[in-house]
Design brief:
It is a single chain. The chain has 406 residues and is of the alpha/beta class. It is built from eleven helices and 15 strands. The strands form two sheets. Strands 1, 2, 3, 4, 5, 6, 7 and 8 form an eight-stranded mixed β-sheet that branches. Strands 9-10-11-12-13-15-14 form a seven-stranded mixed β-sheet. A hairpin with a 2-residue loop joins strand 14 and strand 15. About 4% of the residues have low confidence.
Length: 406
């Protein structure tokens, strides 16, 4: 179903709810819709918000909202999740509701006015192009809407963009088991429950969240609709870091700055046996396409640190073993950036199924050794006189981190 058809469909739901009927009673969506029955705290909410509830769960219950939080609800519909969130964040917080249907926005604004809620704002737009600046919200929620997008990668990337560092992503959505023997049954089930654009498998959802930059990913099925299709709670975090900075995936356009930071590290004489940073093509081809991140100064966009992983072996037995490198610009030391970046990398590695991260560090690089030991790495031993560097034979301390979760 095309975007315009989806908007028209939900606009009809909104108009139905305005007449005093339930928005999902007379539509095919009813069989997969939890609606207002999925909530236990709807007292004092306007009837219009309850009638227009078309979700498959209760994201407010899992979003860990706090007093003063700024929240964004993707596909806010009649506003039930916006109104419930507004209660939790209190007068010092704010909740944005985003919807592509003008009729839904009109209904939601009426419901907010009836409820006497003033810390909300409803925005017209799409979840693939969120009309908010970067790092504007603390929490992103959504109720059975992301599965309707025909560009889910863009939606998740936008959710990451508008979140502040340390921000939380907590949504209810529809997912599919990774191995589905009967694709026709899957498609029939998706159509029956209203998932007109097709749901992501659990593995696909996890990969897209990782690609967007999220870590700490959990996907928990909550209801079985048959055909391998489930409602689920999806949670993730934008990596925390010191104020004024952001941890995000490394991009091709970062190439020059990444290699500059690399060269500054090599110039210390204690970072690597290499003495000159490689070309971007050589750098990129030697490392995995995922599990590469940067710390960027949010005021200037300048890349001030990076981390990336390389495959240890192509043999399947080593599929969960990587070697990593991490470099921090010397002008940005002592700010906790290296520790925040390494913590994000470790968490993302576990999300990606990595069970061992390893590396080698010159013993003279005491700062790097201390950083890694604080992040849970252990010293395996020392390889003595492994190679010559600037005419001097150097030892290398071998370190690794074994995941306790995998």
């Amino acid at each position: 179903m095309a975007h315009d058809e989806i908007v028209d469909r939900y606009s009809r739901f909104a108009r139905t709810a305005m007449t005093g009927q339930s928005g999902h009673d007379s539509t095919p969506f009813g069989e997969g819709c939890v609606g207002a029955a999925g909530y236990d705290d709807t007292a004092a909410l306007p009837d219009g918000a309850l009638r227009a509830s078309l979700g498959c769960g209760n994201p407010v219950a899992v979003a860990d909202l706090h007093e003063g939080d700024v929240v964004l609800d993707l596909g806010s519909g009649g506003g039930i999740d916006v109104l419930l969130s507004a209660r939790r964040v209190g007068p010092t917080g704010r909740v944005y509701g985003l919807d592509a249907s003008p009729d839904m926005l009109s209904l939601a604004r009426d419901n907010a006015a009836q409820a006497g809620v003033t810390n909300t704002e409803f925005l017209h737009g799409t979840i693939e192009h969120i009309p908010l600046p970067g790092r504007a919200v603390d929490v992103v929620i959504s109720n059975c809407v992301i599965n309707l997008s025909d560009d889910k990668a863009a939606t998740l990337a936008e959710a990451f963009r508008v979140l502040r560092p340390g921000g939380r992503f907590g949504v209810s959505d529809v997912v599919t088991e990774d191995a589905i023997p009967d694709e026709d049954l899957r498609r029939r089930t998706e159509t029956r429950i209203g998932c007109t654009a097709g749901s992501l498998t659990v593995g696909e959802y996890r990969t897209l969240l990782l690609d967007a930059g999220f870590t700490g990913i959990t996907i928990t099925p909550t209801a079985d609709h048959g055909g391998g299709v489930h409602s689920a709670i999806v949670k993730a975090v934008k990596p925390p870091v010191a104020p004024g900075f952001e941890i995000r995936p490394m991009r091709t356009e970062d190439a020059g700055q990444v290699l500059s930071v690399y060269q500054l590290g090599l110039d210390t004489g204690h970072a690597s046996f290499e003495t000159t940073a490689p070309t971007w093509e050589a750098f990129s081809s030697a490392r995995l396409g995922h599990l590469r991140y940067v710390v960027a100064d949010t005021r200037t966009g300048r890349v001030v640190a990076w981390v990336a992983a390389s495959r240890v072996s192509a043999r399947p037995v080593y599929a969960g073993v990587v070697e990593h490198s991490i470099y921090v610009h010397p002008d940005y030391g002592s700010r906790g950036l290296g520790r925040a970046l390494l913590d994000a990398f470790v968490t993302a590695s576990e999300d990606a199924g990595v069970w061992t991260i390893q590396s080698g560090v010159f013993p003279e690089n005491t700062a790097s050794l201390a950083l890694h030991q604080a992040a849970g790495f252990r010293v395996l031993g020392i390889r003595e006189r492994i190679g010559r560097h600037h005419g001097v034979w150097r030892d290398v301390v071998m370190i690794e981190r074994r995941s306790p979760a995998i």
